[in-house]
Amino acid sequence: MAVQMEYEKDVKVAALDGKKKIAVIGYGSQGHAHAQNLRDSGHDVIIGVRPGKSFDKAKEDGFDTYTVAEATKLADIIMVLAPDEIQKDIYKDEIEPNLSAGKALGFAHGFNIHFEFIKVPKDDDVFMVAPKGPGHLVRRTYTEGFGVPALYAVYQDATGNAKDIAMDWAKGIGSARVGLLVTTFKEETEEDLFGEQAVLMGGLTHLIEAGFEVLTEAGYAPQLAYFEVLHEMKLIVDLIYEGGFKKMRQSCSNTAEFGDFVTGPRVIGPEVKENMKAALADIQSGKFAREFVEDHDAGFPRLKAYRKEAEELKLKRLVLNCVKQCHSLVKTTMTHSKSITNVIVSKTSLVLVFCVLKRVVGNPTALFWLIKKLTPLRSENSYKLVSQDKVFLLTTTDNSNFIINFICI
Predict the structure, then answer these.
(1) Burial of 211 (0-12, 13-18, 19+ CB in 10 A)
(2) What is the mean pLDDT of residues 136-140?
(3) Considering the entire predicted model, what is its pTM?
(4) Smallest Cα–Cα separation from 213: which of 201, 200, 228, 198?
(5) In a 3-state reduction of DSSP, which class is residue 402?
(6) β-strand pairing of 125-131 with 150-156
(7) Does the pLDDT at position 239 exceed 80?
(8) Which residues lie across from 6 on neighbouring strands?
(9) Cα-only R_g, the chain
(10) pLDDT in tens, 44-103
(11) Which H or E run includes 80?
(12) Residue 45's beta-bridge partner residues?
């Protein structure tokens, strides 16, 4: 079904204005972003959260902060932005006893409403505004005069105002600046869970892990396997984000493109699609939701076991080791001898300083290869590798300002 994008001009009713008091329940990633954006848009916002770090942070940020029960009593519109797995308990214990007819209850994900872990009285509105990005981006892009696109939906319209409230909320957090799409609680919930499980997280992480294991089990260096299957993933995704598969393929070699068409269907074949369909069926039936909530209620034994298993993955240990080495090397370089500092600042064409001790990368040629691998837009003759003592410097011959982050293997 085709959907039409809507914008600020399509928000016809200022449903949050007047004497409406808004309570944001939770002050984490999404909570702080919604609350601060709405306040900056001129709305009366309070925070409802349990005592602890989030409570203290909300007060520090200048909000009137209450318990969830108190905030529910005071507010006309309540947005529940606590984690999915605890929403049903917060609702049952603190929100439901303090609801009264005509209030509006909002969510940023349809999970608990769609799967009926939360059932709201028929005389209250239920709506959803779901920004398609993490909270820190919702906040940052708002302050930059932009925004993150969002989905919105109405599940229950007791007062006749639910849609107006949802659209004005989306405007207040900045999402209507860049685009709104109308959806349903069912559609948003099931598509979101499927995307996370089959592609964005479950599919992607297991694809990377499998590729890493195939290379290392065949005898290839784990450090180089890391760059082939994980580091370069971001570069490819950036190209897809900028211009779709077409731009990505145009930006890669003919060799890579040919391999894409030949090998891609062998790796992601019909059986993978059938497995995806089975995963979607588990989501649609509520099987996944029940398993998740049951695991939470039991203390997350399955999730903890999965996390422990993930800790043992060779790829993760390699990445963590790289990060630790990078931190150590940067710290070492900052306290290095004055002679090394003089070498660094005297190179007017310096673009990148690779502060890598010989005990980590003992072969300058391998380091040079790695640098070229990470900066493919430059020709080989534009680089010059200089070494002194234990510090390698990469300079360019064209005095440009091309900088990448510290990389250590």
Answers:
(1) middle
(2) 94
(3) 0.76
(4) 228
(5) coil
(6) antiparallel
(7) yes
(8) 180
(9) 26
(10) 999 999 999 999 999 999 999 999 999 999 999 999 999 999 999 999 999 999 999 999
(11) strand 77-80
(12) 22
- Dig out the tokens for 405 from the structure: 């982050």
pLDDT tens digits, 245-284: 999 999 999 999 999 999 999 999 999 999 999 999 999 9
Token readout for 177 is: 């600046």
Cα-based torsion angle of the residue sequence 55, 61, 63, 65 in order, rounded to the nearest 10 degrees: 10
- Cite the active site residues: 109
From residue 168, alpha-carbon distances to 73, 82, 192, 297 in Å are 22, 21, 23, 35
Instruction: At 292, list the tokens.
Output: 């998740």
Cβ-based burial of 45 (10 A; exposed 0-12, middle 13-18, buried ≥19): buried
Q: Which two tokens stand for residue 320?
A: 């963590």
From 85, 26, 81, select the one nearest 303 (Cα to Cα): 85
- Cα 165 to its chain centre, rounded Å, is 26
Q: Which residue has the tokens 């990368």?
A: 361
Single-letter code of the amino acid located at 79 = M
Q: Are 6 and 63 in contact (CB under 8 A)?
A: no
Residue 107 and residue 80 in contact, taking contact as beta carbons nearer than 8 Å: yes
- Nearest Cα neighbor of 409 from 331, 319, 312 is 319
Cα angle 92, 95, 100; round to 5: 120
Residue with tokens 């299957």: 229
Q: pLDDT band at 377, cuts 50/70/90?
A: very low
Distance CA 230, CA 370 (A): 14
